[in-house]
């Protein structure tokens, strides 16, 4: 209620707020995760409670910790990274499961050596994501809370799903874990086959997982304007658990969110900065620049983000000048 009981009381002082200065490891990273340590003196629930699972930050930290030096190319690669830690962990645990029919066997074979990279052209990624989002997570949720509650609460937290598969006995008995994995894998294989055909050689995650941007006013436009508002549908890799976040809903797998703008800066050489954006540099349908960045963004490209006047002038292709109309007296 807006009766004043829930207004802000005050602000924390700057000394109370979290900070990090020149960490010994040489870098700091965030990925929409809970950054406050458990011993943080302010109640973390009072700071916020909507945080993403730690998979993206886990992968980012894994990559950054693997090398002592990090350059622009490394940063670009990390922004584009499609490795899913849940996919890698769950796939590794499948070696413990024995199939009982042909579909289960084919599914286990396809995921047996899966490294968790959700590349757009990956058959294993297509199977894993369909399995996880449409079959495995719902089945584990139902096993944990029952069918009545599972329909109300939605899929279990991804950490619970990963633990249920990789640590039999923690949430589910091993026999129950194995049964769920086998049955849902077989069902998922048939699910993908119904969408992409029965030969996994032809499967690609990007055939299901696509970016399909739509202008919000296209339904009110007609003729050439309506046609100009149509943007191409392009395949993409990743998921909401990869550093390059391309989250989707399992009803249609279309990309619903992520970073439209990405940039990498070299503060010692600003003109070496790189960036990408989507869908284009112009917001005017029909303009040559309306969708000129979309394909490069979807295909993980980049281009210069220039700062110095000389570099900007050299790259300029079009200049727009806005001048006031002359007044009645003929002045400027």
Describe this structure in words.
The chain is mostly helical and 332 residues long. Helices cover 38% and strands 4% of the residues. The protein has helices spanning 44-47, 55-65, 72-79, 85-93, 102-111, 123-145, 147-153, 158-166, 174-196, 205-208, 223-228, 294-298, 309-315, and strands spanning 210-211, 234-235, 262-264, 274-276, 303-304. Strands 3-4-5 form a three-stranded antiparallel β-sheet, with helices on one face. Strands 1-2 form a two-stranded antiparallel ribbon. Helix 6 (123-145) packs across helix 9. The radius of gyration is 25 Å and the shape is globular.
Keywords:
38% helix, single chain, 13 helices, 332 residues, 4% strand, two-stranded antiparallel sheet, 5 strands, three-stranded antiparallel beta sheet, globular, mainly alpha
* Secondary-structure element pattern, one letter each: HHHHHHHHHHEHEEEHEH
Q: Which range best describes the helical content: under 10%, 10-25%, 25-40%, 40-55%, 55-70% or over 70%?
A: 25-40%
Taking all Cα atoms into account, the compactness measure Rg is 25 Å
Q: How many DSSP-defined strands?
A: 5
Offer a concise description of the structure:
Helix content is 38%, strand content 4%. It has helices at residues 44-47, 55-65, 72-79, 85-93, 102-111, 123-145, 147-153, 158-166, 174-196, 205-208, 223-228, 294-298, 309-315, and strands at residues 210-211, 234-235, 262-264, 274-276, 303-304.
């Amino acid at each position: 209620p807006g009766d004043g009981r829930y207004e802000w009381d005050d602000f924390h002082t700057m000394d109370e707020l979290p900070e990090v200065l020149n960490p010994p490891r040489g870098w700091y990273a965030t990925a929409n995760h809970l950054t406050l340590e458990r011993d943080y003196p302010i109640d973390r629930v009072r700071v916020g409670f909507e945080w993403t699972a730690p998979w993206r930050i886990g992968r980012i930290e894994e990559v950054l910790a693997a090398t002592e030096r990090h350059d622009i190319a490394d940063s670009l690669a990390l922004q584009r990274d499609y490795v899913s830690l849940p996919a890698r962990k769950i796939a590794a645990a499948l070696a413990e499961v024995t199939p009982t029919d042909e579909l289960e066997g084919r599914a286990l074979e396809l995921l047996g050596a899966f490294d968790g990279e959700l590349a757009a052209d990956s058959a294993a990624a297509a199977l894993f994501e369909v399995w996880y989002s449409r079959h495995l997570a719902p089945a584990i949720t139902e096993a944990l809370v029952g069918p009545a509650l599972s329909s109300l609460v939605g899929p279990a937290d991804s950490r619970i799903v990963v633990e249920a598969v990789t640590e039999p006995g923690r949430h589910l008995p091993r026999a129950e874990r194995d049964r769920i994995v086998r049955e849902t894998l077989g069902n998922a294989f048939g699910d993908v086959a119904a969408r992409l055909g029965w030969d996994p050689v032809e499967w690609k995650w990007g055939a299901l997982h696509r970016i399909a941007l739509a202008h919000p006013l296209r339904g009110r436009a007609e003729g050439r304007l309506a046609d100009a508002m149509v943007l191409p549908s392009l395949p993409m890799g990743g998921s909401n658990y990869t550093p390059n976040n391309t989250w989707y809903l399992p009803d249609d797998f279309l990309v619903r969110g992520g970073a439209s703008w990405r940039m990498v800066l070299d503060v010692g050489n600003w003109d070496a900065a790189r960036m990408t954006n989507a869908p284009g540099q112009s917001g005017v349908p029909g303009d040559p620049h309306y969708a000129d960045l979309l394909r490069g963004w979807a295909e993980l490209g980049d281009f210069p983000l220039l700062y110095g006047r000389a570099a900007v002038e050299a790259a300029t292709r079009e200049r727009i000048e806005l001048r006031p109309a002359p007044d009645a007296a003929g002045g400027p």
